[in-house]
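Bit of a strange request maybe. I'm writing a small parser for structure token strings and I need a real example to test against, not something I typed by hand. Could someone generate the tokens for this chain?
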Amino acid sequence: MDDIWAYPYRLGIGLFFLASTVAFMVVFIGIAMWLEKALKDDPNS
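Reply from user aminoacidic:
Good idea to test on real output. This should exercise your parser:
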């Protein structure tokens, strides 16, 4: 195990954290927009 495996390993972890962060933001924004829409539609109905 030389430095050859270190870079792809760190790159994979970096991509994993980046993808999980983006996915969390997308889900959080989607839930926030859905809650806002649900709260706006509630008094009208």
